[in-house]
Design a protein that fits this description.
Helix 7 links the parallel strand 9 and strand 10. Helix 1 crosses helix 2. This protein has a single domain, classed as Rossmann fold. The strands form two sheets. A seven-stranded parallel β-sheet has the order 1-10-9-6-2-3-5. The protein has a three-stranded antiparallel β-sheet with strand order 4-8-7. The relative contact order is 0.18. The two termini are about 20 Å apart. The radius of gyration is 17 Å and the shape is globular. The protein is α/β, with parallel strands linked by helices. It has eight helices and ten strands.
């Protein structure tokens, strides 16, 4: 895993966005896996700017989102469908038919989850998966104890996840208790993964995910098993990494930086 530590959230977001842009410039029909939450907002803002000002083209891109709340309609202000439209899709030239987001209102969740996995495969697999991390170390809605080989499915959200997300709702009781999510195994199938984290509140989870044992209690730790992961962190999120100085040494001495 390559660790890129930036001084600020804005620098971190721009560095990650440049990685996405490099992929799209080399493979215009790339398949992207996308997260929601506060962390990737800066990346999406920069990608939208690059599209507007630099001509970054999304016309042949296909996207698959990682998760969605169960029970929220697409037009709900806290649905991930709504989030993605507001923060990225309405600002770029991606065809609507190329956008895939799990359905939180499906009548047959098992069939939908199987179809979602099949559709990813039919599109050639995910070339680059962006992923954040929860304060308890979860990735997507794969809560602690989730199987590291899991596939797209319904998950009951942990109390900590509900409490973390309550800030987006009027009250904690309004937060859905179920999510439909890519599995850890689904995420690990991506050819490349960008792991994003910012803020001191993520420092413990980041340290456990990157330097701790691989365990279902910290599902993001499964990223250690992937051959091509780059972690983009701000200084606060990286503050509890035991090997931080070594990562910064590698970053400073990387070929092409001198």
């Amino acid at each position: 895993m390559e660790i890129i530590i930036s001084d600020t959230y804005e620098e971190m977001s721009k560095a990650a966005a440049r990685a996405v842009a490099r992929l799209l410039n080399s493979k215009p029909n790339a398949v992207l896996g996308l997260p929601t939450g506060s962390t990737p907002v800066g990346v999406y803002k920069e990608l939208a700017r690059m599209h507007k000002n630099e001509g970054l083209d999304f016309s042949r891109v296909t996207t698959f989102n990682m998760d969605e709340y169960v029970g929220l309609p697409k037009d709900h202000s806290q649905s991930y469908h709504y989030f993605m439209q507001e923060n990225l899709f309405k600002h770029i030239n991606i065809p609507p038919q190329n956008i895939y987001i799990p359905s939180g209102t499906t009548d047959n969740a098992d069939a939908f989850c199987a179809w979602y996995e099949q559709r990813i495969e039919e599109c050639g697999g995910i070339d680059m998966q962006l992923a954040g991390v929860g304060s308890d170390g979860h990735i997507a809605f794969n809560e602690p104890t989730s199987s590291l080989g899991s596939r797209t499915r319904i998950k009951t959200l942990a109390r900590s996840t509900i409490e973390d997300n309550a800030r987006f709702f009027e009250k904690v009781e309004d937060v859905p208790i179920y999510g439909i999510t890519m599995g850890v195994g689904t995420i690990l199938d991506a050819r490349k993964i960008l792991f994003l984290a910012n803020g001191a509140n993520k420092a413990d989870a980041v340290a456990k995910a990157i330097e701790g044992p691989v365990t279902s209690m910290i599902t993001a730790s499964a990223l250690q098993l992937h051959p091509d992961v780059t972690a983009y962190l701000d200084r606060e999120a990286a503050s509890k990494l035991e090997m931080r100085e070594y990562y910064e040494w590698i970053q400073a001495k990387k070929l092409g930086n001198n």
